[in-house]
Design brief:
It is built from twelve helices and 22 strands. The protein is α/β, with parallel strands linked by helices. Strands 1-2-19-17-18-16-15-20-21-14-11-10 form a twelve-stranded mixed beta sheet. A three-stranded antiparallel beta sheet has the order 3-6-22. It has a three-stranded antiparallel beta sheet with strand order 7-8-9. A hairpin with a 5-residue loop joins strand 8 and strand 9.
Length: 472
């Protein structure tokens, strides 16, 4: 379970526990008594080589290990099955102290800046050439004024609600006061560097012949041997319907596909395979790549314009009364866009606004609450697809509770950029148990969900996991 505590303000989540409760197990046959020439239970996807793929250094190959086949009694009666279990690297959730400490933040405010939001003026201390301090007044722009006004409205909600959940976490032992020993032992985390550039791969896939005209069924990772071309990967939804994990090797990199999950690796121009499945979803969660100055400077990922986001075919993907959830940055321009333009264009009625509050392992905010730059919280806008006529639920016996407003999701964030906390358990009371779930712009997979994005396998990379091997 990812929910550690549930109180009136919201939920305290354990993101790491949610990942590790997924059945990341690979069943592999060890055949000391069998002929080396006998076929194994692996499924190989032999991809054709393209000039564009060669330019990245290798051809693309997918290998899906069969996790359900049992040894044949005649040929493999004495063979052993090894179950290899994987867990997510716990150090990726070791946030032992704030990214900016409150003391440092206070000193910077006192030394460099005095703010008067009411007058829209900030006084900045500057050192002149002759070494003397001088002051200059800078007028806040409208975006900064809007952000301060918004923060003022929700500040009490964030502070009081988080404090209640954090105190409960400290009492139960889930959160731990920061010890001097723990702080000194924390070391920089080495992240995998030799990962496949999935977004670039998706860009190249768009140039494959007739890719946009293909109408193919979902590709299931099964036990039978099968060969597919590049089109089969980029033009189909890939499904793992088994109860165990499968492994994919793509461009020389290994990724884990959890059980009962499916995904489409593509960018926004190639979403038609989702539509071709003719499936609608009861929950759609999306984390759009919002445009901002930081993204432009770092070139960390490509972003979408508001017009491109509006073109996402939500009306075709959403089932009646579908719950739409959008992650939004604290930039007021994006919040207004979702509320005033995006949701109305999809016939989505806003029902609630929640906040994800990021804390350290000891319960401190990762950024000072009143920091003028980065805040320790992000927003989620929840809405329901409006229907012109009343629509009965797929299961009339299921009672779905109304969604409360201003709930908090408090958790220790993953140190990987844009690795959002899981919403499956906090949403369970507000959606049908058998509801179809879809995540757009996903960077990881989860059981029971279909995930789409041009980096949909990013955080499924083997380097983010640790293998624990056991024999059965």
């Amino acid at each position: 379970m990812s929910v550690v505590h549930q109180l009136s303000p919201g939920w305290l989540l354990d993101h790491l526990s949610f990942i590790n409760n997924i059945n990341y197990q690979l069943h592999q046959h060890h055949e000391p008594c069998c002929s080396k020439n006998e076929p194994t239970s692996s499924v190989h996807f032999d991809f054709l080589q393209m000039d564009s793929l060669i330019s990245l250094g290798t051809s693309a190959t997918v290998i899906a290990f069969d996790s359900t086949t049992k040894p044949d009694n005649d040929a493999r009666g004495n063979c052993e099955i090894f179950i290899q279990r994987y867990v997510f690297r716990s150090e990726l959730f070791n946030v032992t102290k704030p990214y900016i400490t409150p003391v440092f933040h206070k000193e910077c405010q006192q030394r460099n800046e005095k703010e008067d939001p009411m007058d829209g003026i900030k006084e900045e201390n500057r050192i002149s050439i002759i070494g003397k301090k001088r002051k200059r007044c800078v007028v806040f722009n409208q975006g900064e004024l809007d952000a301060m006004e918004y923060h003022t409205k929700i500040r009490g909600l964030i502070l009081d609600g988080s404090s209640e959940l954090i105190q409960e976490g400290l009492k139960s032992g889930f959160l731990h006061p920061l010890s001097e020993k723990w702080d000194k032992c924390s070391e920089p985390i080495t992240l995998p560097l030799d990962t496949c550039n999935l977004s670039e791969l998706c860009t190249m896939a768009k140039h494959l012949p007739s890719l946009n005209e293909m109408d193919l069924q979902a590709l299931q990772l099964m036990e039978e041997d099968m060969s597919v071309t590049e089109q089969d990967l980029f033009s189909r939804v890939v499904e793992n319907n088994s109860s165990f994990t499968k492994m994919i090797t793509l461009m020389g990199q290994k990724y884990l596909v959890p059980p009962k999950s499916s995904f489409l690796l593509s960018d926004i121009s190639c979403m038609h395979p989702l539509l071709n499945c003719r499936k609608t979803y009861d929950v759609i969660v999306m984390d759009p790549p919002w445009q901002n100055k930081s993204v432009k400077r770092s070139n960390r990922y490509s972003y979408l314009s508001p017009l491109q986001i509006k073109q996402i075919p939500i009306p075709k993907l959403a089932a009646p009364n579908c719950l739409i959830i959008t992650w939004v940055t604290n930039r007021q321009k994006h919040l207004r866009f979702v509320k005033e333009e995006l949701y109305p264009s999809w016939s989505v009625e806003i029902v609630a606004e929640w906040h994800w509050v990021k804390i350290t392992n000891s319960g401190e905010f990762v950024f000072p609450l009143d920091s003028p730059h980065k805040k320790p919280y992000e927003g989620l806008i929840l809405g329901r697809v409006r229907e012109k006529t009343a629509v009965t639920l797929r299961n009339e016996d299921v009672k779905v509770l109304p969604i409360p407003d201003h709930k908090l999701i408090v958790s220790v964030p993953c140190t990987l950029h844009s690795h959002k906390p899981p919403l499956a358990e906090v949403l369970k009371d507000y959606i049908k148990p058998d509801g179809e779930c879809l995540e757009l712009f996903a960077r990881n997979l989860q059981p029971g969900w279909t995930s789409w994005g041009n980096e949909v396998l990013k955080f499924q990379h083997m380097d983010y996991f640790v293998a624990l091997q056991s024999r059965s």
